[in-house]
Amino acid sequence: MTARPVPDTDPALLEEILAGLAASAAPLADTDRLARARAVRAVADALDAASADLVEVAARETWLPLPRLTGEVGRTSGQLRMFAGGLEEGSYLDVIIDPADPGATPVPRPDLRRVQVPLGPVLVFAGSNFPFAFSVAGGDTASALAAGCPVVVKAHPGHPETSVRTAEVVRRAWEGAGMPAGSFALVLGEQVGVDALRDPRITAAGFTGSLHGGTALYRIAAQRDAPIPFYAEMGSLNPTFVTAGAIAARGDEIAAGFVTSFTLGVGQFCTKPGLLFLPRGHGLDAALERAVAAAAPGRMLHERIRTGHDAVRAQLAALPGMRVAAAVDSDPDAGGPAGATLLATDLATLLAEQDTVLPECFGPTSVVVEYDGMDDVLVAARAFGASLTATVHAEPDEIELVRPLVRELRDQAGRIVWNGWPTGVAVSWAMHHGGPWPATSSPLHTSVGMTAIRRFLRPVTYQDVPAALLDDVLQDANPAGIPRRLGGRLSTGDLSRS
Amino acid sequence: MTARPVPDTDPALLEEILAGLAASAAPLADTDRLARARAVRAVADALDAASADLVEVAARETWLPLPRLTGEVGRTSGQLRMFAGGLEEGSYLDVIIDPADPGATPVPRPDLRRVQVPLGPVLVFAGSNFPFAFSVAGGDTASALAAGCPVVVKAHPGHPETSVRTAEVVRRAWEGAGMPAGSFALVLGEQVGVDALRDPRITAAGFTGSLHGGTALYRIAAQRDAPIPFYAEMGSLNPTFVTAGAIAARGDEIAAGFVTSFTLGVGQFCTKPGLLFLPRGHGLDAALERAVAAAAPGRMLHERIRTGHDAVRAQLAALPGMRVAAAVDSDPDAGGPAGATLLATDLATLLAEQDTVLPECFGPTSVVVEYDGMDDVLVAARAFGASLTATVHAEPDEIELVRPLVRELRDQAGRIVWNGWPTGVAVSWAMHHGGPWPATSSPLHTSVGMTAIRRFLRPVTYQDVPAALLDDVLQDANPAGIPRRLGGRLSTGDLSRS
User: Fold this and answer.
1) CB-based contact (8 Å) between B102 and chain A?
2) Among residues 189-218 of chain A, which lie with CB inside 8 Å of chain B?
3) Distance (Å, rounded) from C-alpha A10 to C-alpha A190?
4) Residue B487: what pLDDT?
5) Is pLDDT larger for residue A350 or for residue B130?
6) Which parts of chain B have pLDDT scores under 50?
7) Does B381 lie at the interface with A, CB-CB under 8 angstroms?
8) Range of the domain at B412
9) Do the Cβ atoms of A441 and B227 come closer than 8 Å?
10) d(CA B326, CA B342)
């Protein structure tokens, strides 16, 4: 690990940071959403401007290649700009106005106006595998700041210096754009993160990381005197199901695409396809072997992650009924490149060993599983589908064959991919990067895409409150022209003229 | 307590019910939303038709007066019809479509179509104080069934026979309208409820009741191998703040309105105003005494609740600096009528004894608190505002005086009432019946109003999935004409023509 040691945040500084967060919550919540949009764009611009410097530090700390890191900074600033656009559009406020109805039975209905307001200070536990897009300036931070919540990020120990440098860029741009001092901060240290999570001034938390870590922190949040929402994005097996027809039509392409996807970023993506279900006698062994042999070994994020990967891979390979279908040698030094490994088994073995197989093997290892028919596939979907994503490869004449599978996956996964690969998560309104436990701790929410902002907002309803005390978005005239729900119908209109 | 003993559900029956719930989850989720709307209306009609019978049983079990119970059945069926209307309107599906963008950078964007799907089997812990509107056929059940989730209700022990009879009406109407057998059930028994909550087939739970009970169950849900969302609506102090101007303009009316509100339903409403903040030297003592004297004593829900109320009232009255401002004698028999009690103190005393005072006194007792200026009021709002509601009484020329108070309450309460009373919760789109802990366990959600359905839905995104495998609401043509978000903009249009 080449990360230089950065000392943990000391208790006095943590207290100062938490006090600053609490003190800035109301001023930040009171900033105009358009001013906040400008500040979010300023952070995006500042990250782009600092990209070369930040990437250099991150490349040293994480061993990720420069082009990937450079692209990731662009993804991070693009994500911030998406939230800025969402602030400008205004529908995230989810304004609902039910005008008074003096004739309602059994009692007259008052005037009710509902809007979303910021939840309060948010704690973000940064992830390791995207040192920009899921770290200090990543989606959790971007959505919480956009919502109007102060943010303290707990840096991931895998890239402390990158975290410190990024935080400084964010803080300067954010405060420089007029946002309250103290409304964005960074802390370092595992115990510091836990202490912050237990602090009553923190009102919600986001997390990207392992099932083990996410579960432990989720339970700490639930055991507080006043529990808070804890949004954890955790492990995922991302099963992929391939039909006989798809293999007949484009077997080699599927084999190559699969290996590219599970080795992308040296297998360190939460959407890595960890299980490939193929019909027995699929005939893709040679194509898969060729694809694995062609996959260039890469250095993993840091030594600890490489060591963890090797241990889980060995555990999987030792299972009865499991064989190594293809493998590229890894550098025995944990700091050297790791090669791809493809294991193979059949569904019966996998089900018998479910407890052992279920852990995600974070790294360039995946498992091919042979099935005997669509009934098997449905069993597999039920057993392994609770994931961020599930993928189906099938041909146009197989729609009816796979209809029950797609239906079953709807009950399990957050995103269903057709004839593609789950890696690469588009940042847009319609993205859902979530899913039932163990994919996330909160099946209702996404950590990627515009609707991620909903995690950090809560409703308030004003009953018969005079217009002089209401925000402009709650006025009859709708001067900002934002989409609202009036009397149960969506509208961008002026209530006073309807 | 006049409730006849009804035996707890035995383990074999609980297993049968949970298996039935799990088996019916997919068929129920696959019902057409318009068919589900018809079934929800059928349940409403059946409740109205059975109203006289149900009310008779409830009056015996809960001691609530017949007119109140009859009105509550109407509220319950009206609530069901609101959800039916919401299903028909269709925006609850929150459909978001981002068409493919082959020119997107850094990578082409696939076609993404996002929709809300039912979460799965829901466990509802019924409340005691509304034996219809927050019980077997109440808001939790109505919103979960409307969402397409099977429901098992854990009956409140305060009205077991009412629960059994109501459940039978609901089940017959629901299944009679074509909904899957086994998708609605009732269980009885405290341990049975806990066992159900721990069962992996349950995917979410709703609760109405005390802070103590809600917290315990919330933590059980968080400790499951796979934790689930637990939506608890719990205690609430519902502070009311009155300015000097409001007293000068309509002091007697405020005194009378306050006493009517805190004694409504013998003080057994979650929105009962439990704290009335008046300026020192308010001069309303006589008016409050008259109003309390005029409030007719009433029997409480059951003996246990009456005993609990009397104990908390005694605890409050014994605090240093607390005096009894007005009281009506209660029948010493816990089955007899309870009279109203108004205690009085000042803010300093209340803050010094905050831990003792904070518990909700469930019943016809409230506390007048004298304050010395608007700074005091802001301190009070921060200390006691985290409630379902907060109320402000002020005059038109005091808007600037109370602006900071209304702003502070926005950060604390779920609903802000102006020159009215918090009791009486309108059932509509814009209602928010929620708030930060301890008002609820989930600050993002409401248990009353149309948006309560969101608690039981989760998103799924389809990536490049063929139209033949997508629901009609995700088709380009939008045959149902429901409101959707297309490319980031709300629309009821046809994507194929845009």
Assistant:
1) no
2) 203, 218
3) 12
4) 84
5) B130
6) 1, 357
7) no
8) 239-418
9) yes
10) 5
